[in-house]
Amino acid sequence: MSAQSAATATANERVKTLTLDSTQLYLTALNSTTSTLSFPPIPSSFPPSNFIPHTRFLIDSFRHPFTAFSASYFLSHFHSDQYFGLCPSWSKGIIFCSHLTSLLLIQTLKIPPRFVFALPLNDPVLVDGCEVILIDANHCPGSVQLLFKVPIKNGIFERYVHTGGFRYCNSMKLNSYLIGFVGCDAIFLETTYCDPKCIFPSQEESIDYVVSVVDRIGKEFGKRRVLFLIATYVAGKEKILVEVARRCKTKICVDGRKMEILRVLGYGDGEVFTEDESESDVHVVGWSVLGETWPYFRPNFVIMEEVMVERGYEKVVGFVPTGWTYEVKRNKFAVQTKDTFEIHLVPCLEHSNYDELKEYVKFLKPKKVIPTVAMDFEKLESKHADKLRKHFDGLIDEMDNKEDLLMGFHRGNCETVEKVERDANEERVMERNKNMFEIKTVESNDMDVSSNDVSYVHKPDSQDSTIPSEEERERIIEETRDSLPRWVTRDQILDLVGSSRWNIVEAVSNFYEHEIEFYEQVSVFRTFESASHASSPNSPISLSNSGHFRSSTDENVNTNLSLVSKSPSLKFTRWRNISPSKRKKNTEKRSNKKVKSNSTLKSSGSKQPTITSFFSKLLPDDSKGGKTDRKN
């Protein structure tokens, strides 16, 4: 055959697109003799973020207790919040996913192979008359973004992008299939970290940090003296583990369930991972062993001590690689210590940060953004979903957004539209009442606080039902201290917990809303102290009046913060127990108040390579889709 004939044959093969009928696949899986199936209408209460308009395609949606109304289920990646609801007895429909995810479903969750269908990457497939394309999501091994081209009528198509869980990187802009979805009708966007505070370093930078800490401390103490604990999910964070093993020349100890996942990923040879604790000083532990990460990080030094004693070590160094622990501050990596224990909070994320989310939306320029991770996101037009979408104002194609997408989700269900309107009216009434209450609160606080007093400590009003005992106050102070950076002084902690009425969660949350102001207080004190020592080297600043609840570690800073605060040339922004956004709304209504605008954070785009390429040399060929058989 000539080269030209071979090229023509290859082109013809490419034209042949795999065509699938989910109903027929499902009937075959059920061994049914019927040739057709009828499904009830999709209920209006079904979350719109898990449903592709004008289809019966359900995305990452296995937990809803409805009667089966579809045979087409898509799984974007193998994380429990996506596959929750799947079990060995699954028989509600066909699960379409990537090849690697199909192996994890069959070998780990024991899903019957006849209900799992692997689709190829970067190769269009027709499912129920709709073009479906899977592209890499740079999230966890096997994760994909789903591109849908849905026929409407008269040759008109609507295009939708469902990101699943993903970490945006610049190489995505080069994907020819994704380029074809620029200007799509909607993007179903994973908005886990859709907050201006969430600006994380790249995965490579975070991995370098973990490797450097393990290498440095390991060499300093020697083997069998320091235990390194890395917290991970059952599936996820494999890239960190592989790099620590490779660059620190050590094996990684995992439990049986994690090893089962790693075998599917191609790491069953024992060169990198082991289940024998004596073979390694780097051990993988469950997510909650080192502490709780929500709503703020709370270390669990008690369990760390138990593990240290049980395994015969002198020191324990832990790593928590997640964005929930990230703090906007001068250092990218926070460390919490106590005695011989260290916990490093490492934002090594498999999710897109705030800037990356905006960059992705700017690239695709969709007509609509549908949040898939948010409180109350089940309501497409809810207040919270609306707030998330405002982050992308000016980045979407608003000129072409002429139709109400909500009607497409619910098939023109008038009752749903009326319900949305009722919800919106109720939310407006609640918001109006809330604003009236907050205005009164601001006015009350303004009357009680001296305008020149920087070290303001909240005085509980007469309505406070309980005041903690001295012992309880000390406990709250210490627990709050464990959740804040080490530079925070005792007086600042007292300020926080006092103004939050001794509520730790509220105190920590308020701190991170005003962290820059607190840090400036400490920074200016240090400048003030240096200047004082320079002008009077033989006359140190008096520390006789250190204030209430003195602590030996914070005495100098606490005492002199009060001195600095009284200096007429050094003034601070007074902290309040009201977020900046709320103060802005309230003070705009009062002509005698001025508001400072918050500065915005910037970061460079992500440059990390995709996770799929990282595992490409070890995993089976994913270029061909089809039924997946169970491995023996």
UniProtKB/TrEMBL annotation:
Residues 450-474, 534-555, 575-632 are annotated as: Disordered. InterPro entries: DRMBL, RibonucZ/Hydroxyglut_hydro. Belongs to the DNA repair metallo-beta-lactamase (DRMBL) family. GO terms for biological process: double-strand break repair via nonhomologous end joining; interstrand cross-link repair. It comes from Gossypium barbadense (Sea Island cotton). One of its GO terms (molecular function) is 5'-3' DNA exonuclease activity. Residues 271-375 form the DNA repair metallo-beta-lactamase domain. It is found in: Nucleus. Residues 619-632 have a biased composition (Basic and acidic residues). Residues 597-615 have a biased composition (Polar residues). It comes from the Eukaryota. Residues 534-546 have a biased composition (Low complexity). This is DNA repair metallo-beta-lactamase domain-containing protein. Residues 581-596 have a biased composition (Basic residues).
